[in-house]
Queue: 2 jobs
Job 1
Amino acid sequence: MPYLVAGLVLFFGVHLFSAFRSRAPGKDLRQRLGYAPYMGLYSLVAIAGFVLIIIGYDQARWIGSLYFPPVWGRHVTMALMLPAMIALAAAYLPAGRIKKALKHPMLVAVKLWALGHLIANGEWNSVVLFTSFLAYAVIDRIAVKKRGDNGPNPDAPSSTLGDIGALIIGIGAYLVFVFHLHEWLIGVPVVLKG
């Protein structure tokens, strides 16, 4: 568990610093360092944290359970993951109706992913991991709202291609994860075989 906690502290520490850093002229660290050096340092710390999270999560896999999830939990998780994948895709595409409605689709995707996995997993490592991601997404959403960042301008034209792309990519990613990637990356099959 120490590697998992250290990874979460590094990963979310740099993300929370970025969310709450001063953006005032002369005080903004990103302006003072320059965009490339700031993003390089930010990326190195985030990647180091992410690697520690992966190692720590795997090492803490057998610590035990905090609670036993309900039998229907995995079905709720599967239902939440489809809109999470669509929201994740929408975050990186031109603003369509989906992105405008969600305002910050990446944070919506993280919240759905974390909540779904908390419903389906009661092991200590899972609870620590998914609670951390859920808490971060809530805190970051509050931070962006306080900064006045309300997502894409609702009056701007909507990109139909952005919406179509989010649906196609999101549904495709969902199917690939359900049937292959989740088991390959995490070692846990979503669809039980046999």
Job 2
Amino acid sequence: MDFGTQIKKLRSSRKLTQEQLAQKLNVSRQTISSWENNRNLPDLEMVVRIAKIFTLSLDQLILGDPTMATKLVKDGSEMRKIKFTLYTTIIMILAGIGCFLLSSIIGSTIDANGMLHEPFFLIPIGYLFLLIGMICGLVHLFFRFHK
């Protein structure tokens, strides 16, 4: 049985209107209608809330419809990608800042022979980390708002 038919059957068996179910889930009546007509599918958080309202296991609610199971797997995969880009962004920016701080802490010295010693390589590496961090941040924003 597809997810829309299953939701409609569960709602009807509890003698709930679309409006009443929508209020319980904090969504619009149109959202319930689009689920029942298989125009859209809820995300995992909403599926958990639906299962609680109808006192069903997630297996009973999800595994009855292969489309729903596929959608939830895809949503999980997208979330992992988003988290990965966010963590990469933070790590790269912190590494860039760390390079600049380390460069300023180490500083430059002149030895007895008049030779200048400085950690010159830390500055371009710091800029590289910042650039990579900004690119990852833009990718993260793209994935987050491109739905």
